[in-house]
Amino acid sequence: MNKYEFHERRAALTPPDVIRVETALSKFPLHRLAKAGVVEIVIREQNAKGDFLRWKVSHNSEYGQPGPLAYKLDTLVVNRRIEEAGRPIPRIIRLGSLKDICRELDLVESGANTNKVKRALLQNASAFITAKIRYKSAAGAARRIEVGDTRYAVVFTGETLPDGRTADAVYLVLHDFYREILDTALTRPLDYDYLKGLPPAAQRLYEVLSYALFAALKNHRPRARLAYSEFCRLAPLTRHFEWERARVQMAQIHAPHRKSGYLAGVEFEATADHEGRADWTMVYEPGPKAKAEHLAFTTRGGPVVLEIEPSPVEPPPPAEAQPPAPGPTGLERELVERGVTPSVAAELVRDVPADRIRHQIEVVDWLRETKPKRVKDLGAYLVGAIRGDYAAPAGFEAEAARTARETAERAALEREAEARRATARAQAERDRVRAYWEALPPGRRAALDAEALEQADPADRAAYAAATAPPVRRLLRAGLRDAYIRRLLGLPAAD
Q: Hey, how many other C-beta atoms are within 10 angstroms of the C-beta on 4?
């Protein structure tokens, strides 16, 4: 028996702890999965039927954007309570005390953690959704919803509930549109224990990828496909356009799924999005855990599974394998790495002088580093700058000019340093000459004076002999003496 058969048979006997999640809203992002910062959550698209879909989540500035803890709270605690409540969903849902929630999230029961949980609840409760979406009901009907609202209100212990009771724990008061979706939308099963043990980004991949993996297993396909750009949009995560950064990002997210056996293999196929920007199709081979889940969720007598809608993000497999197109090179690659589509990059390299392109790349890199808020769409700005030959912004200095300036500055500094060294050497030589002279006894000084005059250059002796003013004669005689001492000490002649 191989490992796949073992896991599949084991799942039939011991099915996972199932949690069923609605499929209408959960496919869209609501939380920031990064530990810090703010991520804009906006989706606008047109589906295959020509319908325009819209999804936007705005956070409350007082409580902040719902982050990883708020995500865990929603997916592990709130969803579990909703499932336990049954259909039709009651308006008021009891979560338990803040300490109960801490335990359920594997947090230490401390004042700091209960405050974090309370803040996360308020972040979730104040996340305002503006949406125009369609979904399929459990009865198979197509439903449409257009709304601007939050999903629920939160009532803490001791506060008054809508029915007049005093809350003995934390409660949620579900809003009408949310209850309607919970009562009517299709649900899908997930392994609650597995979900709980995953870090946020890997948990979100499990939620998103489960659509495609279940569809593949149901239709006996060996692999499931998910576009990298779509996962980044639905997570949401920062999307990278450089292969190495995207690879490293996804390797960390895939790691727990590969270790658990949920994924047996992952491959990347280079492609481009509808705007021509670099993208990759992630091709997944279901692992023994994924197969075991599918078997457990669909075995007769096991958990009842409603038919899962096809993944909205699963790209269709290519009709015929085609050799990969050659990637951009040189300047084209530099443009593509900055968000320009390959076709536009090729056009620019063909039609615009290379020096202008390089100059504008320098400018946009400088702006990205020094004034990141100025350029919102890097690729669009760069294309416009190249075509319009934008003037350099104030404060920008081209690399060639900067190199020349820095070279000149280094040369000037070196000249200044050399001048200081020369001045110090000259002073040290004068000090040695003076010390030599002052160390001589009086008799020797007179003899050295005579020797200096005798061995002086004839022109210098003539100038000394011609001088009549005593101060001038003393100055000239001292100069002859110092020059003679320099020769005795092996020092160069004074300038």
A: 16
SS3 85: helix
DSSP annotation of 60 reads B
Task: Determine the Cα–Cα distance for residues 253 and 256; give it in Å rounded to an integer.
Answer: 7
Encode 412-426: b = buried (16+ Cβ within 10 Å), e = exposed. Answer: eeeeeeeeeeeeeee
Q: What angle do the packed helices 378-388 and 354-370 form, to 10 degrees?
A: 140
CB-based burial, 301-336: b 16+ in 10 Å, e otherwise:
eeeebeebbebbbbbeeeeeeeeeeeebeebbbbbb
**Residue 280 pLDDT:** 92
pLDDT per 10-residue tile (average), the chain, 495 residues: 45 61 87 82 75 87 93 94 90 95 93 95 96 84 90 96 95 94 88 91 94 89 93 90 91 94 92 84 93 78 41 44 53 85 85 87 84 75 86 75 76 88 91 92 89 90 89 91 90 84
Peptide bond into 324 cis (omega under 30): no
Cα-Cα end-to-end distance for the chain: 98
Strand partners, 171: 94, 155
**3-class state of residue 154 by DSSP:** strand
Question: Is residue 151 a contact partner of residue 175, using CB atoms and an 8 Å limit?
Answer: yes
Strand (E) or helix (H) holding 183: helix 176-184
Cα(97)–Cα(113) distance, rounded to whole angstroms? Answer: 13
Looking at this protein, which amino acid is placed at residue 282?
M
Burial of 383 (0-12, 13-18, 19+ CB in 10 A): buried
Say which DSSP state 443 is in: H
DSSP symbol at 327: P
Q: DSSP for 111-152?
A: HHHHHHHHHHHHHHHH-EEEEEEEEEBTTS-EEEEEEEE-SE
159 near 102, Cβ under 8 Å? Answer: no
Instruction: Give the per-residue pLDDT at 328.
Output: 55
Give me 68's structure tokens. 């990883």
Per-residue confidence (pLDDT) for residue 273, from 0 to 100: 80
Q: How many CB atoms lie within 10 A of CB 360?
A: 25
- Predicted TM-score (pTM) above 0.90: no
